[in-house]
Amino acid sequence: MSTNINQPAIKTSDGAGTLWWRTVATCVRKAMGLVCIFCAAVGVSAEPGMLKVGIGRADITPDMQQPVWLAGYAARSAPATGTLHRIWAKALAFEENPGQCAVLVTVDVIGLTREITDVVAETIHKRHGVPRAHLVFNASHTHSGPVIWPTLSVCDAFTPQERQQTIRQNREMTERIIAAVDMAMATRAPARLATGRGTAGFAINRRKREVAPVDHTVPVLRVCALDGAVRAVVFNYACHCTTLTANNLMVNGDYAGFAMLELESTWPGATAFFIQGCAADQNPEPRHTEACARQHGQALAAAVRDVMSRPMQDVTGPLNMRLVETRLTFAPVPLARMREEALDTNRFKQKRAQLMLEAYCCGAPVTSMPYTVQALRFGNALTFLFLNGEVVIDYTLRARREFPDDNLVVAGYCNDVQAYIPSLRVLKEGGYEANDSMIYYGQPGPFTDDVEETVFRAIRDVLTR
Ligand SMILES: [Zn+2]
Predict the structure, then answer these.
(1) Residue 56 Cα, ligand 1 centroid: separation in angstroms?
(2) Domain that holds residue 40
(3) Ligand 1 centre from 241 Cα, in Å?
(4) Cis peptide before 150 (omega within 30 of 0)
(5) Do 38 and 55 have their domain in common?
């Protein structure tokens, strides 16, 4: 599916004018309304390419009335004990022509599921007419946020009651995500956008192999009101939100949460949006303490402030948003091996094997998974590339090499997060991101060797003009 948002305005000045003359004779109040519509249309077209931007946010911090389990570490053996700082669903609506929007949602959780994104998409389409292809989600991948069921359900040891509670909590969170989008749609106003790039150095390649790529780039998108006030700061970095580890039981957004808080205190009234990059093989260094998470948050916020203190490049329309869906294939796994694993002493392998055997017995063995690639292009100035799953950094570096003129911001952890997405290099090397992580995600095993090429075919589809 591919959709160009840049279509003619629905309301033309001619149409509004004719209607105004007809209406003014009968109803002064109605006529005043039409004058307003007419003025708004003229106002937007006064500066070609100027966008309207709406900003919304909703607090998704669990209320702790019931036990809340945190996601990301199989070693956790107790629910959350409190909150270090609030976590959020945030939404940005970009409007080029009246009624035609692209909406970006960021959520401080480990990763969303298709169940959640489908419910939000359906509601937003009904309420605001925004099609699925114009809506994208990004999770910060904080390992100090609530469990999103059934993501990584192989890791949990829930009682049936705890599972029900988690599903209920997820439903409440889904309503909050929708509320954030509603707020963004309601606050659309003309805005000036600008972009720039900085760097922050705390991400390391955690695989520690001979080839250990990192990407320390911090792309920034600034949204200002026409009076110059900063309304939103969007920034991207590729690094796991795993500064805090399994012994942490306090809800928080890890370094990304601290960075957003810091930027929102720098520009009171502005909303900061963190977009997680292709961080699958990237860890913060050092780790383990709250002080480290704060320190990385401050380093990232400082990089963003530095970019915003220097001249930035203007960003305008036309907007173009595309979505392509493909499938990634798993290497075949002999049934005998899953039968063996179902009796394994490792409880994670055992549970994965049970899931695979259940699917096989239902006549729907897991052989592939759906994979979505999206892009949001702002004229020639800036392009966001949104990739599903835990994507390794090789994808960012290759995408930038293949599309050097697109000023790419590459995001991982978009839409639903169902597995690690290794490059061919990482797949051949093996290890956690290629093989072992598939156990925790409840997938049959590694992808076939064409995984990187399949993803890049979809990337070319969304990025080729
Ligand atoms: Zn991860």
Answers:
(1) 27
(2) 9-45
(3) 8
(4) yes
(5) no
Q: Which residues touch 185 (CB under 8 Å, ≥6 apart)?
A: 54, 56, 93, 101, 103, 127, 128, 130
Cα 290 to ligand 1 centroid, rounded to whole Å: 19
Which residue from 25, 48, 21 is spatially nearest to 34, judged by alpha carbons? 21
Torsion angle, CA of 243/115/325/218, rounded to 10 degrees?
Answer: -20
* CA 46 – CA 66 distance, rounded (Å): 53
Residues in the chain: 465
pLDDT at position 98, please?
83
Find the 141 Cα to ligand 1 centroid distance in Å: 7
Tell me how many domains the chain contains.
Answer: 2
Question: Residue 133 gets which letter from DSSP?
Answer: G
Instruction: Based on the fold, state whether residues 124 and 28 are members of the same structural domain.
Output: no
Give a yes or no: residue 84 inside a domain: yes
Residue 395 located in a structural domain: no
59 plus 98 within the same structural domain: yes
Residue 166 CA to ligand 1 centre (angstroms):
20
Ligand 1: distance of its center to the CA of 109 in Å? 11
pLDDT at 277: 98
Q: Is the pLDDT of residue 54 over 80?
A: yes
| Cross-strand partners of 219 | 197
Q: Are residues 24 and 155 in the same domain?
A: no
**CA 20 vs CA 17, 27, 28, 40, 45: distances in Å:** 5, 10, 10, 14, 20
- 181 and 250 within one domain: yes
Span 36-52, pLDDT tens digits: 333 333 333 447 789 99
Residues surrounding ion ligand 1 at CB below 5 Å: 390
Q: Do 269 and 120 share a domain, yes or no? A: yes
